[in-house]
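To: structure desk
From: M.T.
Subject: fold request, one chain
Message: Could you run this one when you get a chance? Sequence is below, nothing fancy, just the single chain.
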Amino acid sequence: MGELNDKAKCLGNEIVGNIKQAVGKVSGNEHLQAEGIAQERHGEGQNLKGKIKGVMGDKV
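Reply: Done. Structure tokens follow.
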């Protein structure tokens, strides 16, 4: 179950991160754009964690 939870969080963070990046770029808000990049990277980390849990059988 932990694998699916991490993957769901990952997807949410990646989507929100991409939106923040786009809005920051269009509006010229570098802080928001950087925040979006950080959130997307966080989502990528969660995805990796979910994959590891899948391989290890949720023992991580």
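Reply (cont.): Residues 30-56 form the longest helix (27 residues). Let me know if you need anything else for the meeting.
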